[in-house]
Write a structure and sequence with these properties.
heterodimer; A: 230 residues; alpha/beta; seven-stranded parallel β-sheet; 7 helices; 18% strand; globular; B: 340 residues; Rossmann fold; six-stranded mixed β-sheet; three-stranded antiparallel β-sheet; 14% strand; binds guanosine-5'-triphosphate; binds adenosine-5'-triphosphate; binds magnesium ion; binds zinc ion
């Protein structure tokens, strides 16, 4: 079974892109499944169901969705294989810009919204930096020049990535994205495979439930800001 | 330059001098929060002075920074940014919506203007999409698009990575919060334009020549009117974008000098395709593709008689333009205005 990981900031267009992608791959209905990793709640399952795409949703709740992703991804793969899928796509919202769900050897796509600001690609970290392909959405409403500037910003932090413009509404561009994804490898299990980037564990007292503010309640790894005199 | 040469830059010359020679290095440093690095040293020595923790946050070690630097410089070296040259584009027919063959092979050369006409929903935008993705018999229309007479394999198509085609449509807007000057500067930078100042000046003048109402270099791009935005987009495509193929989908209501606009693009040796319902635009093209039911049914070359009627259409258009002008000025619209 081929495995593809798709991640990106909330509402960047991941579901729209995945739906168009599946449509243009032309695989038999039921042979492509999706697992959505979300935080608190999600309405994506309705859209996938409507398109007759088998979907499983998991909620990370208190923990970083990428940590949650790593803890569950191999089970997701086993579910996909048991269900007889030819392809499994994971969708996860990159909420903490510190982590990313990409695994060495697993085809990874970052979906990013071109309306989010030209410098955004330079700010979002491993989610973009370590992706194989960066799919840019919502470029239908911006000028050609702004598209080019946006692609330039992406190349600055990830010079290896292919930048593909995909229209999540009309599907324009999803065709070329589908072509790239044919390169995705067959995966039987992810056991012993490695994340592309470390996801730090709970490192400070706030990670473990502390709510009180002040130096005396801060334990573990703390990073303090430096406030210089004006 | 190859990777080894960039490594030499990191070892041998101070960051100060590096920045003078390659201003884009400032972006590299900012991306890794290395803005405060000692600039009198070469990069390889300066990173020794840096906080290892910051570098680690980016998933790098000190050596990794040097590797990233070389990759970054390689990506933005002018050789890589060059657009592929396109002398000709060939459209080889596929199937229309009923699955009947189009039976056509049409070759267009740079500097040509081609209009695409046909009823609403007939497939004009679809043809533009086929060109954009360099279809190789793998889109619903089964058309094939050859560049310089040859078919492209997937790898070559990926390599082109959108460098071939610039698009312009009615739905596009400017969204960046920048002045015209800042915007053109940023675009020129991203295109690694040499002589940016001059190019920006030309582009600005070109845009103002197309726009009805003039704007300034200090005007915010988001404050431009629809017509001014379209004018700036066209001039920008002509002077800065550098993509050899331009696809235009419906700009008839743009409120700019449409003929002058596409002539500007054609003069820049571009291959211009315009999907349109506008007779003036359609007849400004050397060739005209007629589409029906998803298929190309014929390709017409403009003939002398049509060129003559183009003159009459221009006259009509002039009358209409004048009517619009009078309306805007608050004049009375009388029958006299309809006489040329
Ligand atoms: N104009 C335009 N809108 C788009 C495009 N792609 C997505 N959208 C819209 O953007 C909104 C968010 O899209 P989704 O696909 O739900 O985004 P998502 O990343 O899956 O969101 P979450 O899973 O909730 O994080 C929807 O209203 C889409 O219709 C695009 O290319 N152009
Ligand atoms: N040869 C074809 N085979 C299958 N589908 C086609 C073909 N040509 C066009 N279509 C489909 O027909 C629909 C309408 O086409 P398109 O949007 O290109 O029309 P249009 O001529 O641009 O219309 P308008 O003038 O309203 O913009 C699209 O969904 C397109 O994909
Ligand atoms: Mg979604
Ligand atoms: Mg159309
Ligand atoms: Zn995290
Ligand atoms: Zn914490």
């Amino acid at each position: 079974m081929k495995l593809i990981t798709i991640a990106g900031p909330p509402s960047s267009g991941k579901t729209s892109v995945i739906l168009k992608l599946i449509e243009c791959m032309g695989l038999p209905i039921g042979s492509v499944g999706v697992v959505k990793f979300d935080c608190l709640t999600s309405f994506d399952n309705l859209r996938y169901r409507e398109a007759n795409i088998p979907i499983q949703t998991g909620f990370s709740g208190k923990i970083c969705p990428d940590h949650y992703f790593v803890s569950n991804i191999d089970d997701a793969v086993q579910w996909g294989i048991r269900s007889g899928f030819q392809m499994l796509i994971t969708e996860s919202a990159g909420l903490c810009n510190r982590c990313s769900p990409y695994i060495n050897g697993v085809f990874s796509v970052c979906v990013i919204d071109s309306l989010s600001g030209t410098n955004t690609p330079r700010k979002i970290g491993p989610l973009l930096k370590l992706a194989d392909i960066v799919a840019v959405t919502k470029a239908d409403i911006i000028s050609q020049a702004e598209r080019e500037v946006f692609a330039f910003s992406i190349k600055q932090v990830n010079s290896h990535a292919r930048v593909v413009f995909v229209n999540g509404i009309t599907g324009q561009g999803s065709f070329i994205l589908a072509k790239y994804l044919q390169q995705a490898r067959d995966i039987q299990t992810l056991r012993d495979m490695k994340l592309r980037f470390t996801t730090p564990a709970a490192v400070c007292s706030y990670c473990t439930g502390e709510t009180r503010i002040g130096e005396s309640h801060q334990m573990g790894m703390m990073k303090k800001m430096e406030f210089k005199k004006l | 330059m190859i990777r080894k040469d960039f490594l030499a830059l990191a070892n041998d010359i101070s960051i100060e001098d590096l920045l003078l020679e390659h201003p884009i290095v400032a972006d590299f440093l900012a991306n890794l929060r290395l803005d405060n690095i000692p600039r009198q040293l070469p990069l390889s020595l300066a990173i020794e002075e840096m906080d290892e923790d910051i570098i680690q946050e980016f998933g790098l070690d000190k050596f990794g920074v040097l590797i990233s630097f070389c990759e970054f410089m390689e990506t933005f070296s002018t050789a890589k940014a060059q657009n592929p040259a396109v002398a000709t584009l060939t459209i080889i027919g596929g199937l229309n919506k009923s699955g009947e063959p189009e039976n056509i092979s049409l070759t267009i050369s740079s500097g040509d203007i081609v209009s695409i006409v046909g009823p609403t929903g007939s497939g004009k935008s679809r043809l533009l999409n086929d060109i954009e993705c360099l279809a190789q018999g793998d889109t619903p229309t089964m058309r094939r698009i050859l560049v310089n007479g040859v078919e492209l394999d997937d790898l070559q198509r990926f390599e082109m990575e959108g460098k071939l085609v610039a698009q312009l449509s009615q739905n596009m807007n400017f969204v960046m919060d920048l002045t015209v000057r800042e915007f053109l500067y940023l675009h020129a930078k991203s295109r690694l334009t040499v002589n940016a100042e001059q190019v920006i000046e030309k582009c600005f003048l070109g845009a103002n020549a197309l726009a009805g109402e003039k704007f300034l270099l200090d005007t915010k791009i988001t404050q431009l009117s629809g017509g001014q935005s379209r004018a700036l987009m066209i001039a920008d495509t002509a002077y800065i974008s550098n993509s050899p193929i331009v696809l235009i989908d419906e700009i008839e209501n743009a409120g700019i000098d449409r003929r002058q606009a596409i002539e500007l693009l054609a003069q820049r040796e571009k291959l211009v395709f315009i999907s349109t319902h506008d007779p003036l635009l359609a007849l400004s093209a050397d060739k005209r593709i007629v589409i029906k039911n998803g298929g190309i049914i014929k390709v017409m070359e403009i003939i002398q008689a049509e060129k003559q009627s183009l003159k009459a259409i221009e006259k009509l258009d002039g009358i209409l333009q004048n009517l619009r002008h009078c309306l805007r000025e608050g004049d009375q619209i009388t029958v006299d205005l309809l006489k040329a």
